[in-house]
User: Fold this.
Amino acid sequence: MKKAYFITATDTGAGKTFITAGIAEALRRNGINIGVMKPVESGCALKDGRLIPEDALKLKDASGTDDALDIINPYRFREPVAPNIAARLEGVEIDFEKIKNCFETLRAAHDVMLVEGAGGLLAPVTDKKTIGDLIAYLDIPLIIVANSKLGVINHTLLTFRHAIDIGLTVEGIVLNRTSDLKDQSVSFNRSEIERLTSMPLLSDIPFTKKETPNPLGLGVFDQLAKALI
Ligand SMILES: Nc1ncnc2c1ncn2[C@@H]1O[C@H](COP(=O)(O)OP(=O)(O)O)[C@@H](O)[C@H]1O
Ligand SMILES: [Mg+2]
Assistant:
């Protein structure tokens, strides 16, 4: 069994890291050899002269691997801006081949790979290529994380249709509640997205308060993980 998924989203902050870490930890608990990758991370804090890629570290921690951080996360940048701009500000050009080499190294060592994108499908990675182009280059199916709030139907369909238009394989959509503010759309989002994409949702993840002792230990992640192996 060798499987790999690219996790993208309707927007930044939609829950890619939260969901990817949740799946990674659920797979690990179920004895699956899981590898993770965050190819490009911008907005990294600087500590003692080193950039700290928080997402990559969260994923590494959830997966329990001892893979080198520089393979999990070959590109990290200081400024919290789109990858191509963050790279340009540091005089770097992101190389898809280098990302693919890291990915293939990790894929060879693990049974399931989860790769977290940056922003959404049309986020620029270089001045000419987007996250969608990177997914096509890695040649793996994608999972769309959609922030369940008013507007999510439009955002999800835009992402879904663009993925299909550029020839990507959509493995599924995960709805995620990043807020517990009252929002009437939430009771309709699942059924409408399923109706309009003709795809059953992989999961509908509830808002989880930070105080929850083990938010990643939620049963919903076990179900989601099982659907992916
Ligand atoms: N289901 C959820 N319940 C509670 N908080 C969440 C949930 N999903 C995401 N969050 C929080 O929302 C913020 C953005 O999520 P994150 O996974 O970092 O998004 P992305 O990786 O897409 O930028 C984080 O602080 C995260 O912990
Ligand atoms: Mg993230």
In short: The pocket of adenosine-5'-diphosphate (ligand 1) is lined by residues 9, 12-18, 176-178, 205, 207-208 (CB under 6 Å).
